[in-house]
TrEMBL record:
<feature type="compositionally biased region" description="Basic residues">
    <location>
        <begin position="366"/>
        <end position="379"/>
    </location>
</feature>
<dbReference type="Pfam" id="PF09445">
    <property type="entry name" value="Methyltransf_15"/>
</dbReference>
<dbReference type="GO" id="GO:0071164">
    <property type="term" value="F:RNA cap trimethylguanosine synthase activity"/>
</dbReference>
<feature type="region of interest" description="Disordered">
    <location>
        <begin position="222"/>
        <end position="241"/>
    </location>
</feature>
<comment type="similarity">
    <text>Belongs to the methyltransferase superfamily. Trimethylguanosine synthase family.</text>
</comment>
<dbReference type="InterPro" id="IPR029063">
    <property type="entry name" value="SAM-dependent_MTases_sf"/>
</dbReference>
<dbReference type="InterPro" id="IPR019012">
    <property type="entry name" value="RNA_cap_Gua-N2-MeTrfase"/>
</dbReference>
<feature type="compositionally biased region" description="Basic and acidic residues">
    <location>
        <begin position="298"/>
        <end position="318"/>
    </location>
</feature>
<feature type="compositionally biased region" description="Basic and acidic residues">
    <location>
        <begin position="226"/>
        <end position="236"/>
    </location>
</feature>
<keyword id="KW-0489">Methyltransferase</keyword>
<protein>
    <recommendedName>
        <fullName>Trimethylguanosine synthase</fullName>
    </recommendedName>
</protein>
<dbReference type="GO" id="GO:0005634">
    <property type="term" value="C:nucleus"/>
</dbReference>
<keyword id="KW-0808">Transferase</keyword>
<feature type="region of interest" description="Disordered">
    <location>
        <begin position="297"/>
        <end position="379"/>
    </location>
</feature>
């Protein structure tokens, strides 16, 4: 079966894999730790939030999801973007928060391949009053992305069977989307909890999808890029100082992910990557890498900026050296990154580290929501 866009109002029923645990003795042992934190995961857990047993491990806690939704809505990579595509919808942690940023997105699309998890996400979105603000797609996001590019190239078919009606429905949805208005958010599975034991998480070994696979799925296939450059050359004559468009992405990854691997994704000349650590109670839960979507192929602006930076840092280095010579043995040793690339990533990561506790919410609105939910729950 290929991916299926659910029709307006179409809901997958909760099934035997979807649970709302109310007592500790109902909860499988390996989930108990998460269940104890259920209200930090979903503030309205008691209003019948449902999860599959595996969704407990991957769901983004509500305060983190809220903060990401807020950051993403105003981030420079989101400029001009009106459609948000969540490739790995899960039980709805992130996608609900995106849909709650009402007015920011014309459309929020959630893709999830596991039917029971999607049923939970739809149900949870209903608890948060945003069920009908989300376009739900059941299926493999890689297949959807292949189709996304296929529709733009006017070729390609879905790899497997499935009803023609579903394919048309998906093609219609994808054809409606303007590439320059789309922003992709991805919170892929991290391959279980073993990532915690690693000092630096190797993203090339992330399972079942590594960083490169994810990135490739979201990047315009090379031949189309070439085509685009040729068109610019023909139109303008001379060499292409083209704006090569890739799909911008926000990637939700383990907190200790290898930043050099993330940096390597973006070609020379592209704007810098922001990496933000999202923390709860003083500890990082995960990072989000905000990747720039448009590349100045000539890299002129970026070259100018780095030249200026180089000059400045040479001067700074000279000053520093003189100071160090003066201070001699008293100089305090410092851990400096060894390469420019490393330095730039380290700089970005430090600049953007964003510790936070409880997100500020509008209390009146919160009370109103609670009352509304309570009365609908009692009815
Ligand atoms: C880490 S969870 C996402 C959690 C989600 N952000 C949330 O807050 O609830 C990853 C999800 O991706 C789904 N998934 C895995 N492979 C997929 C694929 N190829 N296409 C779509 N969904 C996929 C899994 O079933 C799982 O629910």
């Amino acid at each position: 079966m290929g991916p299926k866009v659910l029709k307006k109002g179409e809901k997958f029923p909760l099934d035997e894999n979807c649970h709302h645990y109310t007592k500790l003795n109902e909860v499988p042992w390996d989930i108990q730790k998460y269940w104890h934190q259920r209200f930090s995961i979903f503030e309205f857990y008691d209003y019948d939030i449902h999860l599959t047993d595996s969704a407990w491990f991957g769901v983004t806690p509500e305060p983190v999801a809220t903060r990401i939704a807020r950051d993403l809505s105003t981030h420079p990579i989101a400029q001009g973007k009106r459609v948000l595509i969540d490739l790995f919808g899960g039980a709805g942690g992130n996608v609900i928060a995106f849909a709650l940023s009402s007015g920011r997105w014309d459309r929020v699309i959630a893709i999830e391949k596991d039917r029971s998890t999607l049923a939970c996400a739809q149900h949870n979105a209903e608890v948060y009053d945003v069920y009908d603000k989300i376009t739900w797609v059941h299926g493999d996001c890689f297949e959807v992305m292949r189709r996304f590019w296929g529709v733009r190239l006017g070729k390609g078919t879905m790899s497997d069977g499935g009803p023609e009606e579903d394919k048309e429905e998906l093609d219609d949805l994808l054809a409606e989307l303007k590439l320059e208005e789309c922003l992709v958010f991805a919170s892929p599975p991290w391959g279980g909890v073993s990532y915690r034991d690693q000092e630096v998480f190797d993203l090339s070994k992330m399972e079942p999808y590594n960083l490169e696979q994810l990135y490739e799925a979201c990047t315009m296939p090379e031949h189309e890029e070439e085509e685009k450059k040729k068109q610019v050359e023909q139109k303008e004559g001379g060499s292409a100082q083209a704006q090569t468009q890739i799909l911008p992405q926000a990637l939700f990854l383990p907190r200790q992910s290898d930043l050099n691997q993330i940096a390597a994704l973006v070609p020379d000349g592209a704007p810098k990557i922001d990496v933000v650590q999202y923390c709860q109670k003083g500890a990082s839960k995960a990072l989000v890498a905000y990747l720039p979507g448009t590349i100045d192929a000539g890299g002129k602006e970026e070259k100018k900026r780095s030249e200026a930076k180089k000059q400045l840092s040479e001067e700074e280095r000279g000053q520093k050296k003189r100071k160090q010579d003066d201070e001699q043995e008293q100089a305090v040793p410092k851990l400096l990154p060894e390469t420019t690339e490393e330095a730039s990533v380290a700089y970005d990561a430090q600049e953007d580290v964003d510790l936070y506790d409880t997100p500020k919410t509008d209390n009146a609105e919160k009370r109103k929501r609670k009352r509304r939910r309570r009365s609908s729950h009692n009815n």
